[in-house]
Amino acid sequence: MGTKTDLGQILQDLENTSTLEELSIVAECLRDTLKVAHLTYHWVDGAGDQYGYTTYSDAWDERYREKNYHRIDPVILGCFQRFHPVDWKSLDWSSKVAKSFLQDAHDHGVGNQGYSIPIRGPNGQFALFTVNHSCDDQTWQTFISTYGRELILVAHYINRKALEFEKDRQPDATRGLSPREIDAITLLALGYSRAQVAHSLSISEHTLRVYIESARSKLGALNTTHAIATALSRGLIVV
């Protein structure tokens, strides 16, 4: 992770891939070029199905899916709320569930440093590209300062190619939200509690819950936070 390496050839190789197998070979080459322990492209769709490529161990990959960790993973939950790259150290790992998940990850060879890039596409498509390593904070910050911009470009190259190869993973057509659903999601995005939203709209919290669940279903969202992020990314609400 010392001297900067030109990633131009990697980008060209990504552009020239025509199969998922070729994409995985280039991804491994990228990992070795960057001298990081792992990299991952991770998609979680509205139904909870997961797809992607990872250099993590098979044991961790299987355990992550078995435990449905995508539902509590602070990296995924944090990136739903952001549009810019996220250093894992900036996320909230204070809860008992998050600490337990992190310990399990470390026990399975996941490094102590991570940098994840949220990728949003048409109709609310959401994926993550992550680089992961074990090192001290200063070394990691130097690495991110050196490669941060290029990693964003790499992330979008990989995402575009993955969508080309997996046509059935293309996002569904947009389903519009009703005016009431838009009002509810907008107020939640502004930080209102459910009680405050219900009061503002002069409806019961039960009726509000119906609006929120309907919006979440239309947006293919895993939870309310995901619904808000998806609505923002599609331009369905403005905050």
List keywords for this structure.
239 residues, alpha+beta, Beta-Lactamase, Arc Repressor Mutant, subunit A, 2 domains, five-stranded antiparallel sheet, globular
Description:
It is a single chain. The mean pLDDT is 86. Helix 8 crosses helix 9. Strand 4 and strand 5 form a beta hairpin. This protein folds into two domains: 162 residues, Transcription factor LuxR-like, autoinducer-binding domain (Beta-Lactamase, 2-Layer Sandwich); 56 residues, Winged helix-like DNA-binding domain superfamily/Winged helix DNA-binding domain (Arc Repressor Mutant, subunit A), CATH 1.10.10.10. The longest helix is centred in the middle third of the chain and has 29 residues. With 239 residues, it is an alpha+beta fold. The protein is globular and about 60 Å long. It contains ten helices and five strands, in the order ααββααβαββααααα. The chain has a five-stranded antiparallel sheet, with helices on both faces.
Tell me the strand order in the biggest sheet.
2-1-5-4-3
**Low-confidence blocks of residues:** none
How many DSSP-defined strands?
A: 5
CATH class of the largest domain: Alpha Beta
Give the percentage of residues in beta strands: 5-15%
- State the helicity in percent bands: 40-55%
Number of domains: 2
Number of contiguous helices: 10
CATH superfamily of the largest domain: Transcription factor LuxR-like, autoinducer-binding domain
Shape: globular
Distance between the termini: 40 Å
CATH fold-level topology of the largest domain: Beta-Lactamase
CATH architecture of the largest domain: 2-Layer Sandwich
Computed Rg? 19 Å
| Helix/strand/pairing category | alpha+beta
